[in-house]
Design goal:
- The protein is an all-alpha fold.
- It has one domain.
- It is 84% helix and 0% strand.
- Helix 3 runs antiparallel to helix 4.
- The radius of gyration is 23 Å and the shape is elongated.
C-alpha cells in the first residue's frame, strides 16, 4: 500500500507551487545549456568560415581586396563577435538565472552596427535608414539609462 502512495506524493509535490517553479527552473537551465552548446558549435563553424575566407582572400586574390570581400570579412568578424556575446548572455543566465539587460543591449547594438556596416546604400530606402537610426538611438538611450541606474 505504501508503494502506491509514493507516485501520488511525487505528483503532488511536483504540482505544488514550489515544485512547479523548481521544475520550470530546471527546464530553463536545461534549455540554456543546450543553447550554449549549439552556440559553441555556431562559433566554431563561423571561425572556420572566417579563417577560410581570410586565408583565401590573402593568398588567392590580388593584393588589394578592398571591395566586397573586405565587407564580407568584417561581416563575419562581427557575426562571430555577436555569437560570442550571445554565448556570454546564456552563460550569465546560467550563473545568475537573471537576464543581464546591459549585455543584451550591447549585443543588440553590435548587431545593428553590423547591419549598418554591411548596408548597401544603393538598395536602402530612406525609411529603412530612419528605422536603423531610431534603433541605434533607442538602444543607446537604454544603455545610458542602465549604466546610470547600475552605478555603485
Amino acid at each position: 500500500m505504501q508503494k502506491h502512495r509514493r507516485p501520488i506524493r511525487a505528483v503532488q509535490r511536483l504540482l505544488s507551487d514550489k515544485g512547479f517553479r523548481l521544475g520550470i527552473s530546471n527546464f530553463e537551465s536545461f534549455i540554456a545549456k543546450v543553447l550554449a552548446i549549439a552556440m559553441v558549435i555556431v562559433i566554431l563553424v563561423s571561425v572556420w568560415d572566417l579563417s577560410a575566407l581570410l586565408l583565401g582572400d590573402i593568398f588567392l586574390k590580388p593584393a588589394l581586396f578592398l571591395d566586397k570581400a573586405l565587407l564580407e570579412i568584417f561581416g563575419l568578424f562581427l557575426s562571430v563577435l555577436i555569437a560570442l556575446e550571445l554565448l556570454q548572455n546564456i552563460t550569465a543566465y546560467l550563473q545568475d538565472h537573471k537576464v543581464q539587460l546591459e549585455l543584451v543591449i550591447v549585443t543588440s547594438l553590435t548587431a545593428v552596427a553590423r547591419k549598418i556596416i554591411l548596408l548597401d546604400l544603393s538598395q536602402v530606402t530612406g525609411l529603412q535608414l530612419m528605422g536603423l537610426a531610431v534603433a541605434v538611438l533607442s538602444l543607446s538611450i537604454s544603455y545610458g539609462m542602465i549604466k546610470l541606474t547600475n552605478r555603485p
